[in-house]
Amino acid sequence: MRQIFLDTETTGLSADSGDRIIEIGCVELINRKLTGNNKHFYLNPGRDSHEEALKVHGISNEFLKDKPGFEAVADDLLEYLKDTEVLIHNAAFDVGFLNNELALMGRPLLKEFVASVTDTLAMAKELFPGKRNSLDALCTRLGVDNSGRTLHGALLDAELLADVYINLTRGQDALLIDVGSDQNTGRQVVSIDLRAIELPVLTADMHELAAHEEVLKQLDKASGDNTVWRLTA
């Protein structure tokens, strides 16, 4: 399975108001393995970035002056994304900007080129309701090293998002074993059916039961005798 993690940086927050994409970063994952076959573009948006946007990404207007416009990289990007699952954090924002760039060229919407778009922010909100689910917050929660992220950058953020996604969905691979690999086709995996395996039941001995009871007593004391198992006993 081929997946692409994508992020953009823009001149501002509203494509409808004329803001444009200035950077695109893409990271490829095949069968949950990073391939190194990534894409990265800096783009000349034909306008200056808003001051607040500059504080976020730090990409100066001067730096972008000699970079190509979106139309120059569109075919390369769309071929790279063709028929893949594209994963984006807060997908509505990035997809809106990409659709705007395509519309300015008279091209169809992004959904016409890719197999699907998955919003990892929506995934995180479902897994961690009521918590902060920004990319930085998820990195901290899932143990992904984001120490190099002093400013937002499309390629770095796409790489971090791929790591976050692997950690978010790690349980899906708990019963998968690699049976071989090929650099061109990616790794093959086979699932193992555990229903045919009879697992032994090991009962606790008297010393283990006593130690367990002691831990429960300590928890009772710390909670002021309000532990749920005592109240419902």
Note down, in words, how this protein is organized.
This protein has nine helices and eight strands. It has 233 residues and is an alpha/beta fold. The protein has two domains: 2-191, 2-Layer Sandwich (Nucleotidyltransferase, domain 5); 206-233. The strands form two sheets. Strands 1, 2, 3, 4, 5 and 6 form a six-stranded mixed beta sheet that branches. Strands 7-8 form a two-stranded antiparallel sheet. The longest helix has 17 residues, at 206-222. The radius of gyration is 24 Å and the shape is elongated. The relative contact order is 0.14.
CATH superfamily grouping of the largest domain? Ribonuclease H-like superfamily/Ribonuclease H
Q: Roughly how much helix do the residues carry, as a percent range?
A: 25-40%
Q: Which fold name corresponds to the CATH topology of the largest domain? A: Nucleotidyltransferase, domain 5
The parts where pLDDT drops under 50 for at least 5 residues are 173-186
What is the radius of gyration?
24 Å
**First-to-last CA distance:** 49 Å
Give the helix/strand class: alpha/beta
Strand content: 15-25%
Largest sheet: 6 strands, mixed
What gross morphology would you assign? elongated
Mean pLDDT: 86
Q: What is the overall number of helices?
A: 9
Number of domains: 2
CATH C-level label of the largest domain: Alpha Beta
Number of strands: 8
CATH architecture of the largest domain: 2-Layer Sandwich
